[in-house]
Amino acid sequence: MRSSQHRILTSHAGSLPRPDALIEANRLRGAGGGIDEIQFQTELSAAVSNVVAHQKALGIDLPGDGEFGKSMGSRINYGAWWSYSFQRLGGLELSGPGLYDSPPVRSRPDEVVLTSFGDRRDRNRFAAAYNDPDSGITTGPRAAHTPVCVGPLTYTGHAAIQADIANFKAALAASGIEEGFMTSVAPGSASRIGNTYYKTDEDFLFACADAMREEYKAIIDAGLILQLDDPSIAENWDMINPEPTVEAYRKFSMRRVDALNHAIKGLPQDRIRFHLCWGSWHGPHTTDIPMRDIVDVMLAINCQAYSFEAGNVRHEHEWNVWKDVKLPDGKLILPGVVSHATNVVEHPELVAERILRFANLVGRENVIAATDCGLGGRVHPDVAWAKLDALAQGAAIASRQLWGRTS
Question: Is 405's pLDDT higher than 80?
């Protein structure tokens, strides 16, 4: 994985704004008509080529494919990073209730279990705001049904991931870029759907790990960097009612880490990075678990680099964690220094200040400047691109202060 001894490199968390033409093509494809597969793939390939070129023009050193192969049929969409896997896993049936329609589930001290998405503690605390369409709290369109595992879980997305890889590698070559990353959902998040086949939640979790490993391996075998997306490590805290003890939650989360490490066993750690977040929806987030309580859980994941939220107002102060936590030798961090959670575009000087906080604590060569979470589907495209521009400008300012040069 690329790092730098001369300046702060830049990247982001994955999702970037889809062009309207691609959104419409996805909508038509999902509706089962209006576009054939050749037309769709042509549209997708061109969009990936353009998004990589756009990243390069803005000064993003380690680009992604924008997650363009993960279908979005509307401009606002918070779940494509996860829901794409529903089409790539065999053994699922679209028969579960809507994501926010499942009945509440209560946890017990001796057994921590997840409740429904609609029963989050943050949603309950601010019910009036969440139910007010004018409040600014946005989650995007809601599917009427969610998948349920009804048979042996298998990976069926081989053709889809190979198409994504081919599009991205062609785009990288066209822009003269040597290294790029591609995202894939981790088992802890992939398993947050219904299950009637496996006897236990743990059996289902590890079945997800075995199935998704095929996608992880395909990305790495193609010479790309694999980013594993798993907000469940932090976000699940808000989905347990009543609030558990930190000790119980850490134990619960470590099983998800165990499953992820099982899925990537034998794969080169220096080709893998991990993304942690508290959920990208625009809400109060008062029930987010502190970074300090889970930072060592994150660091137990067997990869080289760790991406996490550090720019939004609920988590910006947590750079202080690294005063007490030593980053293991050979590891990198990708703190979010611009945020998906606001339409305000960060000033480059502020971006530089945020970068410097981390660089001064963990070493300048160990920091890659990134975004809190994906920008695509969360903020207006013009705002998203302005944020990446501010990110690159801020990294240049920080580089001058840290090295006295930018190249």
Answer: no
